[in-house]
Amino acid sequence: MTAALAAAAAALVLTAWYLSWRAGRLDRLHARGDTARVALDAALSRRAAAARALAADLPAEPGRLLGSAAEGAARSSGTERELAESELSRVLRKAAAEPVPGGVPPAALAEVEAAAKRVLMARSFYNNVVAMTREARARRVVRVFRLAGRAPIPEFFEMDDEPPVFPPGRRKVDSR
Amino acid sequence: MRVGLVCPYAWDVPGGVQQHIGDLAEELLAAGHEVSVLAPCASEEGLPPHVVSAGGAVAVPYNGSVARLSFGPRAASRVRRWIRTGGFDVLHVHEPIAPSLAILACWAAEGPIAATFHTANTRSRAMAVSAGLLRTALEKVNGRIAVSEAARATLVGHLGGDAVLIPNGVAVRRYENSEPWPGWPGDGGVLGFLGRMDEPRKGLGVLLDAFNLLGRSRPGLRLLLAGPGEPAGVLARVDPDLRGRVLTTGRLSEADKVRAYRSVDVFCAPNLGGESFGMVLTEAMAAGAAVLASDIPAFQQVLGWGSAGALFRTGDPAALAHAAAELLDAPGRREALSRAARLAVGRYDWRLVAADVADVYETISPAGSGGVRVRADTGPRLPRAS
């Protein structure tokens, strides 16, 4: 009888330890998701600012298009933001493909290229954490014992993040 | 930035991952970062100052070959001590898919962690068996890097998610001023090969068959085979009349390897496939060799679809012989390929590649992230060694 009680108590302790461990893991995943989201937002803001700076160096019409796309991306939120950021990617690629008489300052191009690369990275990292979190939350033990608490389910950030490619001849002076 | 690099494989055994980490560490140091590398190592003697030994490694059969890894309570406690005393801003683990220091580091640490995946075509069973174990470690990784499309596809196929692509770098500055050995390549023409002789995937057999076809009509032509492996079995495949013109060197020192690429007229990479990236190819390009490679997808990409090196149909000795003959008879074309190769390899220069890796570090450790700490809470952890 006592043996059975001891075994039951041990099982209870083990289960409690296991559940608290799973809950801790999930909590840390959520925290990593928040950090990754901050990094993604920072990368997107940097790209919008770089695009706005580049727009000032372009001829009137393409400059206006790029400027308004950058403005739209910076101002949008929610699912609209995914569309606006994709639109900015598209306009940036178009700007990269069109020759500019007299060229463009290399620093502006380099900043747009670097910022676009960062967006690619930050989004990949963010979506990875989201995928792992969503997978973890779909597990039975997590659902039955409500280990996720009240944390909202993180959403993927979907957008066209194909970076622009500026041909070497597009620069005013070779940056090398 | 203070960076802690974790190498899963024994530092004193030559290998691609070890070289990658060594080169990355040097490039990060040159860029002004502080770097510490933790690796299994039999002895601390002769280690560079930035490499820390995690103790000896044991041989573990893994992915079709034998890997020398460290895993266990002793290694775990060394990892914890290294993290505690390191004060790192970022931890960068490599190949965290086998029970190794990399997995131990993921378990022990809390904070920004980057992980690089090197392997392509891992046997699914090796990964499936330890999938639950891997998950607990991979959950800790903030930024994933794959060195090639093949490595990325393997990762995605087995573990889901995605990774950013940052290719293997090549230490261009080590190769750009290489000189041929005195008297090489000489008049009759030399074809070169570098790699393990006893690994069928490297396609040496295709090159030997091609040499049999070419050697008879070109009395001065020689074949240089550089790399470890038993040459007797290789030579048996060569026409007895031509064997005297095949030179085998065994494993070359780093300095001689650099010169070997320059000492041949045409550098051949007849690989049959399974190659994730082609380090040999980018090294040869950096040294300014005229390259002739099989047209597997990884090589086509590195060689710019034929603009920075000639391609032939994979596994076809006659095609290799034909293309090699054309190059041997056209010094101008070889010169042009050499120049194009040096230009094209620029994007694999470690100086650029390491800057991309540093971008990953910055992305996963926004200001105020507090750096890497040893985990204080409970979890699956190996008992501490006393």
From TrEMBL, chain A:
Domain of life (superkingdom): Bacteria
Name of this chain's protein: LemA protein
Native source organism of the sequence: Murinocardiopsis flavida
Automatic annotation (TrEMBL), chain B:
Entries under Pfam families matching the protein: Glyco_trans_1_4 (PF13692), Glyco_transf_4 (PF13439)
Keyword Glycosyltransferase: yes
Residue span, Glycosyltransferase subfamily 4-like N-terminal domain: 14-172
InterPro entries reported for this sequence: Glyco_trans_4-like_N, Glycosyltransferase_grp1
Highest rank taxon of the organism: Bacteria
Keyword annotations from UniProtKB, A to Z: Glycosyltransferase, Transferase
Keyword Glycosyltransferase: yes
GO MF annotation list: hexosyltransferase activity
A biological process term (GO) from this entry: carbohydrate derivative biosynthetic process
Name the record gives this protein: Phosphatidylinositol alpha-mannosyltransferase
